[in-house]
């Protein structure tokens, strides 16, 4: 097999962990909660009534940090907010100001926090406030399509049909634009040059992702991708080998093998411009998708 440019420079493959679409038919951004998706259960009382409740929560992304304030009924409820937030933005970028108060309203949302936060992570800044009076949301998106999808989604993620105040500003910036409707995580997973061996530097992050998959239980496809440099057939083979390597590490860290399906797509599905190095780097990735 001849090595393409990505192997010669020591590929740092992007790991894109794609979530179950929160729904269909919303400008193809899939931002609405699915009719079959599991609600974000927090309290058994809410589960019994299946009545969606907004709760008391305020999230602000500014200067690269997400500050989360509000009140929740117990530690379990707090963890249901903090765990996915820390997985997506990183623990060093989360400022926890959540208070545990037994009298606080339990939140019961139409979509899971991990799926909602993944949509919010596509914004460069946002301010989300949930209260019994309604939802206030503002943010900055990289294109009009994403902005419209976020606005429509905000009225359905938590309590479907809720009125939302605020506005999403559009900043035409390719770096802020959504490149994959189902993105959940976008990681830099390193491989040894010209091989499918995952670098030891990436094992710790894969452990964190494995912990999420063990708790979440969803079945995902691990899909390998390359840029268009070199031989197409060789790229497809390498992409599958790397997907299989990631699958094995996740299994070694407790994920059931039945949850993971490895697929190699090679250069067939680019998400960025292969004519630039930045674009080629984005295209060299592994996706975990439903």
UniProtKB/TrEMBL annotation:
Signal peptide: none annotated. Residues 178-290 form the OmpA-like domain. PROSITE patterns: OMPA_2. The lineage of its organism: Bacteria, Pseudomonadati, Pseudomonadota, Betaproteobacteria, Neisseriales. It is found in: Cell outer membrane. Its main location: membrane. It holds the Pfam family OmpA. GO terms for cellular component: cell outer membrane. Residues 270-290 are annotated as: Disordered. Keywords: Membrane. InterPro entries: Bact_OuterMem_StrucFunc, OMP_bac, OmpA-like, OmpA-like_sf. This is OmpA family protein.
């Amino acid at each position: 097999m001849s090595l393409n440019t990505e192997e010669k420079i020591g590929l740092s493959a992007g790991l894109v962990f794609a979530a179950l679409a929160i729904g269909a038919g919303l400008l193809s951004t899939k931002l609405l909660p699915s009719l079959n998706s599991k609600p974000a259960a927090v309290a058994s009382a809410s589960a019994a009534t299946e009545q969606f409740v907004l709760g008391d929560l305020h999230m602000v992304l500014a200067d690269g940090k997400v500050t989360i304030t509000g009140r929740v009924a117990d530690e379990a409820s707090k963890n249901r907010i903090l765990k996915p937030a820390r997985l997506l933005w990183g623990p060093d970028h989360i400022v926890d100001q959540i208070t545990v108060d037994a009298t606080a309203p339990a939140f019961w949302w139409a979509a899971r926090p991990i799926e909602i936060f993944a949509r919010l992570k596509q914004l460069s800044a946002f301010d989300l406030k949930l209260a019994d009076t309604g939802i206030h949301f503002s943010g900055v998106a990289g294109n009009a399509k994403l902005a419209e999808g976020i606005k429509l989604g905000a009225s359905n993620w938590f309590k479907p049909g809720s009125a939302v105040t605020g506005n999403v500003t559009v900043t035409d910036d390719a770096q802020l634009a959504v490149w994959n409707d189902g993105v959940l995580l976008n990681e830099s997973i390193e491989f040894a040059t010209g091989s499918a061996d995952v670098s030891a530097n990436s094992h710790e992050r894969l452990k964190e992702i494995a912990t999420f998959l063990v708790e979440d239980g969803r079945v995902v496809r691990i899909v390998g991708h390359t840029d268009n440099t070199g031989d197409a057939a060789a790229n497809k083979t390498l992409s599958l080998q790397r997907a299989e390597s990631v699958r094995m590490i996740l299994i070694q860290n407790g994920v059931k093998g039945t949850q993971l399906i490895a697929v190699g797509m090679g250069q067939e599905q680019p998400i960025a411009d292969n004519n630039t190095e930045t674009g080629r780097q984005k295209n060299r990735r592994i996706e975990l998708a439903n």
